[in-house]
Design brief:
By secondary structure, this protein is mainly alpha-helical. It has one domain (9-489). It contains 21 helices and two strands. The protein has helices at 9-19, 21-27, 30-54, 75-97, 107-125, 129-147, 153-184, 189-196, 201-218, 228-234, 237-262, 267-288, 294-315, 318-348, 360-363, 365-379, 385-399, 404-427, 448-462, 465-479, 481-489; strands at 57-64, 67-73. A hairpin with a 2-residue loop joins strand 1 and strand 2 (67-73).
Length: 490
């Protein structure tokens, strides 16, 4: 009997490990298993790269025709799966090595993190719109529970708000899927793409609006992102790192994957999405300028970067798409670093308010230094990787003689510089804080995952050619509607 790996393992492995959680509890290996599972998925994803760069890998599991599971692993899907596994490994390693709160090291958190990764992988791999909804629900339920895991007033309020908003978004998505099935009789996304043009124009518009609202809420686009700062403020920073690094990216992928594959001419949708991206970016950066709480500032900063990625992806040129995918990687790395730093700061100080963190560098010099590095990467300064991804995006707009996005991106960067340097100035202020609650020094083991991220930000900034071919092929795969339809339907 020959044992071979298929794309379904990216979903099956975390699900299986989650269901076997009582076994890991008995053996007292919850955190090592969680970390090793994510690392194994990351290594498996990288091992698939040579195969996927030659041709996409298709996997079809028929349950009872026409019901089945269809998975499509191409270069862009593999990019996201690899990124999700890396983010899961970093957060798991941080929880394991960094002596995080007990509720994050217990079985419920273990199960929910695995379900979140499994559902996110399923969202980018599935070629069936019904299964897409199933994975969206898996991700949603795990995310709602993780938000309330700490069980204090702030966490429970955030979890309840997340549940309500997420459920409303899921209803919009479900209505769109039902209408698609009623109009076409198809569930396979490629088959839906072939039949979508035959749907009456008004029904196409209704389906598009329902899908845009539902996925816009999930992907945190303006004006559907009013709920985000409260969730990020109420959740544990380790969990927030997964929201920003994994969850948002999965929904952005779904939004643009469906846009590019269902619409033979996505011009109208492109204009709408570019406008939403631009507004999200500017509004979020302006609001971040006023924030006095670190987690709320990082939440709005994250929304601004999501707006930038949306703006670049919606333009749908190969250069801006490759730059946006590179920025997806950078944004994940940067926000993992910043939110995990916030978790370390919260262990040392009673508050993450700006005034209470004055002089932090004297108590936590490593944390302050890593914050500076992450801030410079967000701003897109060389030699960090954020500079390269933003440069690719700007070059893409310039090559197309479209200059207004360039102006907005530069304005947003100036606003970012204003609030990030305000926090840096506070950290390095001469006076010490009076709200410190711990007296032990910085443990280098706590910083091991963060130093790894910092190293990657430098390496990818100095040697972007390590990812250039992969990102170019991923951009072509995301934009290549006919190639995907031919690969699936023949």
């Amino acid at each position: 009997m020959t044992f071979h790996f298929t794309p379904v393992w990216f979903i099956a492995i975390p699900l299986l490990l989650a269901f076997l959680a009582p076994l890991w509890v008995r053996w007292r290996v919850l955190m090592p298993v969680l970390f090793s599972a994510q690392f194994a998925l990351f290594a498996l994803a990288l091992s698939w790269l040579p195969t996927v760069r030659i041709a996409p890998v298709l996997e079809t599991i028929v349950i009872a025709p026409p019901l089945g599971i269809h998975l499509h692993l191409d270069t862009v899907a593999l990019l996201f799966v690899t990124l999700f596994s890396f983010a899961g490994a970093v957060v798991s390693g941080f929880i394991w090595l960094g002596n995080s709160a007990p509720h994050l090291r217990d079985r419920p958190a273990f199960i929910l993190i695995l379900l979140l990764i499994a559902g996110s992988n399923g969202m980018v791999l599935t070629g069936d719109i019904f299964n897409l909804y199933v994975f969206i629900e898996i991700v949603g339920v795990s995310a709602y529970a993780l938000a309330a895991l700490r069980r204090d007033k702030t966490a429970l309020e955030g979890g309840l708000k997340y549940l309500i908003v997420g459920s409303v978004a899921a209803i919009f998505i479900l209505f769109a899927i039902v209408l698609l099935y009623l109009q076409t009789g198809q569930l396979n996304i490629a088959a839906l793409a072939r039949a979508f043009a035959d749907i009456p124009a008004q029904m196409q518009l209704l389906i598009g609006l329902l899908m845009l609202i539902g996925l816009g809420i999930k992907a945190e686009l303006f004006p559907f992102n009013f709920w985000v700062p409260d969730i990020y403020r109420g959740s544990d920073s380790e969990i927030t790192a997964l929201y920003s690094g994994v969850l948002v990216k999965a929904f952005l992928f779904v939004l643009f994957h469906l846009t590019f594959i269902l619409l033979a001419d996505p011009t109208v949708a492109r204009n709408w999405l570019m406008a939403l991206g631009a507004i999200t970016m500017i509004v979020a950066e302006l609001v971040a300028l006023r924030q006095q709480d670190l987690r709320r500032m990082l939440a709005y900063s994250s929304l601004g970067q999501v707006g930038l990625i949306t703006l670049a992806l919606a333009f749908a040129s190969e250069m801006t798409t490759a730059g946006a995918l590179f920025h997806v990687i950078n944004h994940t790395l940067i926000k993992l670093l910043l939110f995990l730093l916030a978790a370390l700061m919260l262990r040392q100080f009673a508050s993450l308010k700006l005034a209470d963190l004055q002089g932090l560098s004297r108590t936590m010099p490593i944390a302050a230094g890593l914050f500076v590095l992450a801030a410079l990467a967000v701003l897109g300064l060389p030699p960090l990787s954020g500079f390269v991804s933003k440069l690719w995006i700007l070059k893409g707009f310039s090559a197309a003689q479209t200059f207004w996005p360039i102006a907005l991106i530069l304005i947003a960067a100036l606003i970012e510089a204003g609030y990030y340097f305000r926090w840096i100035r506070t950290f390095y202020a001469p006076t010490s804080t009076s709200t410190r609650i711990q007296s032990d020094g910085e443990r280098i083991l706590n910083y091991a995952p963060l130093l790894l991220i910092a190293g990657l930000l430098i390496v990818l900034g100095v040697m972007p050619f390590l990812l250039e071919d992969w990102l170019t092929q991923a951009a072509q795969a995301l934009l290549g509607r006919e190639a995907l339809l031919n690969a699936v339907l023949g």
